[in-house]
Amino acid sequence: GAVVSQHPSRVICKSGTSVKIECRSLDFQATTMFWYRQFPKQSLMLMATSNEGSKATYEQGVEKDKFLINHASLTLSTLTVTSAHPEDSSFYICSARVTSEYEQYFGPGTRLTVT
Amino acid sequence: EDQVTQSPEALRLQEGESSSLNCSYTVSGLRGLFWYRQDPGKGPEFLFTLYSAGEEKEKERLKATLTKKESFLHITAPKPEDSATYLCAVQASGNNRLAFGKGNQVVVIP
């Protein structure tokens, strides 16, 4: 149990375009989902926390207009990188948490490359 | 601010050579300490949650322990498939967020 999927696993886009990444909890309902970014050889950096049906809470320094997060249902959250630039290239990972538990279960990640 | 420091950063072990990874933390009221395993190019895989000092949990060759200041992840008789980066994270009471350490990169040589 506690499986989280992400789609796509890899995406290459041109500078200036937008990219949407989906995060789904497959076998549980997640009232809270999290979006992280990870640079090579670095640990996870939390970008935002999203609760189903409400606006996401962004970490300091994360541009909310650039990284749009939608958590429309208990099993789906999306991250849209708008007007992507090469510096947005990174490994993006989502996680989801079952309401009554503390553990976060992570998706497999999405490698974004902006050319 | 919650802080997590993991040591050593990198560790090379011979197959069968047991060792321990350290996670030192400072947090204002610990809700939980978490260990994850991360393989290259993949998301972290949940291993353990520890809630209070003195607690221990085991899974196959891994055993996690917790004190008020640190946690250890003991790897007993490791195999090459135990090669990975092990991440430690803490969650403070009243806080949704996990604060991660930079990880312990473990390579087990056959």
Task: Walk me through the structure.
The complex is a heterodimer of chains A (115) and B (110). Chain A is mostly beta strands and 115 residues long. Chain A is built from no helices and 11 strands. In chain A, the strands form 2 sheets. In chain A, strands 2, 4, 5, 6, 9, 10 and 11 form a 7-stranded mixed β-sheet that branches. A 4-stranded antiparallel β-sheet of chain A has the order 1-3-8-7, with no helix packed on it. The mean pLDDT of chain A is 92. Chain B is mainly beta. Chain B is built from no helices and 11 strands. Chain B has strands at 3-7, 10-14, 19-26, 30-38, 45-50, 56-59, 62-66, 70-75, 84-92, 99-100, 104-109. In chain B, strand 6 and strand 7 form a beta hairpin. The chains are: A mainly beta (115), B mainly beta (110). The A-B interface holds A 2, 4, 6, 32, 34, 42-44, 46, 49, 91, 93, 95, 102-109, 111 and B 31-32, 34, 36, 41-46, 49, 87, 91, 96-98, 100-103.
Query: Which strand-content bin applies to the residues of chain B?
Result: over 45%
Low-confidence stretches of chain A: none
Please tally the β strands of chain B and state the result.
11
Oligomer: heterodimer
Query: Compute the gyration radius of chain B: what is it?
Result: 13 Å
Q: Helicity of chain B, in percent?
A: under 10%
Which geometry of chain A do the CA atoms define?
Answer: globular
Derived structural class of chain A: mainly beta
Large-scale geometry of chain B? globular
N-C termini distance of chain A: 37 Å
- Mean pLDDT over the residues of chain A: 92
Global mean pLDDT of chain B: 95
- SSE order of chain A in H/E notation? EEEEEEEEEEE
Given helix and strand content, the structural type of chain B is mainly beta
Q: Classify the helix fraction of chain A into a percent range.
A: under 10%
Computed CA radius of gyration of chain A, to the nearest angstrom: 13 Å
Please summarize the sheet with the most strands of chain B.
6 strands, mixed
**Largest interface, chains and sizes:** A-B, 22 and 20 residues
